[in-house]
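Escalation from tier 1.

The customer reports that the assembly of two entities below gives different structure tokens on two consecutive runs. Tier 1 could not reproduce it. I'm attaching the input and our single run for tier 2 to review.
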Amino acid sequence: MPQPPLRIGCAAGFSGDRTDVAAPVVDALVAAGGPAVLIFETLAERTLALAQLARRLDPDAGYEPLLVDLLRPVLERCLRHRIRIVSNFGAANPQGAARRIAALARELGLAAPRIAIVEGDDLGAESRRPLLAAALKDVSDFADVARTMVCANAYIGAEPIADALLAGADIVVTGRVADPSLTVGPALAHFGWARDDWDRLARATMAGHLLECGAQVSGGYYADPGYKDIPDLAHVGYPIAEIDGDGHCTITKPPGTGGRIDEHTVKEQLLYEVHDPAAYLTPDVVADLREARVVELAPNRVRLEGVRGRARPGSLKVNVFREQGWLAEGEISYAGARAEARARLAGELLRERLATLGKLRIDLIGAGSVLGDDDGRWLAAQPRGEARDVRLRVAMIHADRVTAERLPREVTALYTCGPAGGGGVRTGLRQRLSTLSCFVPRDDVPTRFSFLDSP
Amino acid sequence: MSRSTVPLYRAAHGRTGDKGNRSNISVIAWHAELWPLLVEQVTEERVSAQFAYRGPTHVTRHLLPGLQAMNFVLDDVLDGGVNDALNLDSHGKALAFVLLDLTIEVPAGLRHHLVGAESDTPTTQEPSRRPSP
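Tier 1 run:
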């Protein structure tokens, strides 16, 4: 008899995602009745660096700021129905996140859940410097990197997640893991696949890939009126993957939610952030999509087939974030007759005033902005137009904060010193985080899980 | 058979993803019968020309016939990427729409597979009107 599928629902695709989407996903998992897992993917590239900066200010912070808001609506039902929760919402402080979840369970009057913490991704410690220095030897001056480093984290894989679930965890909290590993871990634990069963791992990896951006597979980042119409996008449903014993998946979403899952939404998300489809690299496997196919089984039910796998890479990707300079931005609006000409004049005078400070990006929102390049070649080639509602935006990066502060001041001065009718100035100044990526040998990044001690 | 020129977005859809300073843009046929036209006409050369103003160092096209899709990988088009670019859209999320502004010639017999309005004729800026890098 075929095994029942493992259902994995995804209720977040980035840090700060909607907090009202988990409940319908959990409703659907409960109604389906079989084995089920709820995942939250909340860790984009720079989110972890921001979390580390938050932890510097408050040692108890550094995990997903919305942790409690995400879990409160569903924690009781997940525990009652044995729906395991797996998430990277631990960010820079998985221990802190685990303690906060334990506290939430107490607040809600629940029996203490078994919370596992996955560790090993964090390479920020002094003792790991030689490893990073070796990995970055061709990239950069490591002494300089070390001086400004905010965090260094390896993308670790599914195995410690699977081990934690096999040891009885109700909730698994991780820091940096590869996004699809949040799905591969539960599948590995549930089906008991060999850890070198590359085809099955690759299929589960692509199921995870379809889930990991939340609504991006169900109509989000897709709708385009008249071309790609999506029903009730305001209440877009978050995805559920039904994974079978061979790792194949069917993607669906909770009944009664908005959005749509069809052949086209799945294809777009399948290729999202993929480079060579013959070799989609993760810590768990190298997935090969060249023979992939999608089949619409029913409305909002699409099956992915044909994914193959090869042996996983011997090295792990590491992202190193540094504090490097300040990003200064300012905006001001011009409207009515000759608005574009006035905005262009404002841009030209800012260029003159700030010429000595370095590269200044100028955008004319409403006439040309996001398609242009930082060097301004695109904007310079656009014919001057007659746009009547234009917002000038300027941006620059400078190593020195005091110097960078000149940009917001100069934009504000456009009120009184610039072209006629300028209004609505907004300015911002924030520390810039720059990234370096490198690879380290897998064997140099031991991973483990541990259970949160009972209070 | 007569062929007409239509915007690529009537024959295909796509999505932009980013990693570092590299952008990937999928181009997915709206119908399997339109797929051969994409293979023939949406080439690395044309895509390179369309993005010349952003100075890609390399443009690669990967074909996925089982999905009737192709995946373009554009190196060094994001002004350094999400943490380094000054662009409001530092991810380059909008770039799929630049690619889909290309035009494609479609035989009359396949026009019924196109999406969008028949009145939607190309308004695209052809590469010749873009600045050279």
